[in-house]
């Protein structure tokens, strides 16, 4: 995607050939800055502090982090150490573990002096694969939007939650990719953007993306979605996912489940968009088995924003001394999901639906 007319990926090799550059998402939407990652520890810190975030991007960053680790220690012990450090940063998104296990398995088959170069090459291949997958998700999802617009004969309103655009991937995005493809094809699309407390990824990141691409949108408070659905102002919901079970349960940013309940009550279709690397084929019950990350209470108790004079300030918004819980994700049961959009097409949100798109998993089961 483009910022100021210049194309960017969220992560890319630095010109020095020994490090990578990432977009620092903690600085958005008010400042667009790149950050250089030169060590595995820096990659882990970038994931932990959400300089990079979004399940697919976390996975690619983990792969590059493992490549950086091979420049420091290419032994099997070095692989184990880096996988443990990077894998501990964010427990919910399965893409991270998938990427680390995939690259680590490749490296163990190679001599130590070949591991660093092979790891960088494989991380780059995974990044390219993510771009291609997200573009395909965009094409499949755009057909759904086009059909809805044609049936209604007017602009369609899409509700999103959190940020599942190009900032959450390497490029294009998951839930926003169909919106970009449809918008570029002339389909009249308007997006209701949930602010997504407590980190406000919708208000800060999704709105930033849509602004940059020229997509009509309106930022709303998280709790406004159900009201809009009741009054016919939302035609369809598109969300991303950090982990989806083999049975179609969808884990996504906290608050997604409530949107799905409201969508079911009001007859609004509810889709999750995700690449193959987000599917956890080992799990069937997402509510019971997906680990939910508990993040720092300060994300809830404090807000940082821009002042009228252009400066920035962090303010406390919760009664001092009150206990705070901050679960980062929730799970939407498959029964509330209309369909799952992947790079291979649109599946029913159940085991047979997903296996229909990925028949090779039957043999692996």
TrEMBL record:
Electron transport in keyword set: no
InterPro entries linked to this entry: IF-2B-related, IF-M1Pi, IF_2B-like_C, Initiation_fac_2B_a/b/d, M1Pi_N, NagB/RpiA_transferase-like
Annotated coiled-coil segments of the chain: none
Gene Ontology molecular functions: isomerase activity
Top-level taxon: Bacteria
Binding site for substrate: 53-55, 90, 201, 252-253
UniProtKB keywords: Amino-acid biosynthesis, Isomerase, Methionine biosynthesis
NCBIfam families: eIF-2B_rel, PRK05720.1, salvage_mtnA
UniProt similarity note: Belongs to the EIF-2B alpha/beta/delta subunits family. MtnA subfamily.
Protein name: Methylthioribose-1-phosphate isomerase
Species per Swiss-Prot/TrEMBL record: Methylobacterium iners
Gene that encodes the chain: mtnA
């Amino acid at each position: 995607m483009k910022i100021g007319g210049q194309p960017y990926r969220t992560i890319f090799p630095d010109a020095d050939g020994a490090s990578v550059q990432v977009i620092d998402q903690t600085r958005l939407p008010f400042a667009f800055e790149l950050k250089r990652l030169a060590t595995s520890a820096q990659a882990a810190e970038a994931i932990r502090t959400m300089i990079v975030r979004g399940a697919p991007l976390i996975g690619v960053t983990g792969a590059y982090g493992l490549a950086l680790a091979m420049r420091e220690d290419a032994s099997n012990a070095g692989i184990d150490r880096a996988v443990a450090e990077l894998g501990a940063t964010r427990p919910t998104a399965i893409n991270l573990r998938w990427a680390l296990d995939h690259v680590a398995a490749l490296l163990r088959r190679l001599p130590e002096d070949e591991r660093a170069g092979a790891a960088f090459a494989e991380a780059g291949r995974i990044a390219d694969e993510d771009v291609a997958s997200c573009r395909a998700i965009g094409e499949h999802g755009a057909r759904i939007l086009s059909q809805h617009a044609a049936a209604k004969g007017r602009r369609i309103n899409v509700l999103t939650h959190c940020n599942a655009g190009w900032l959450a991937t390497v490029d294009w995005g998951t839930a926003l990719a169909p919106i970009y493809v449809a918008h570029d094809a002339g389909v009249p699309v308007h997006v209701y953007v949930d602010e997504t407390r407590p980190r406000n990824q919708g208000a800060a990141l999704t709105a930033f993306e849509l602004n940059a691409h020229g997509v009509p949108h309106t930022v709303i408070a998280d709790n406004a979605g159900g009201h809009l659905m009741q009054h016919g102002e939302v035609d369809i919901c598109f969300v991303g996912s950090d982990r989806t079970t083999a049975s179609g349960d969808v884990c996504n940013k906290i608050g997604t489940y409530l949107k799905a309940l409201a969508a079911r009550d009001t007859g609004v279709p509810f889709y999750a968009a995700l690449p193959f690397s987000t599917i956890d084929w080992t799990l069937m019950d997402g509510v019971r088995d997906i680990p939910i990350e508990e993040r720092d209470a300060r994300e809830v108790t404090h807000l940082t924003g821009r002042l009228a004079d252009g400066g920035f300030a962090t303010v406390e918004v919760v009664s001092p001394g009150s206990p705070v819980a901050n679960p980062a994700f929730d799970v939407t049961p498959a029964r509330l999901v209309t369909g799952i959009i992947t790079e291979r097409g649109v599946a029913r949100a159940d085991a047979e639906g997903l296996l229909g798109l990925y028949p090779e998993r039957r043999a692996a089961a």
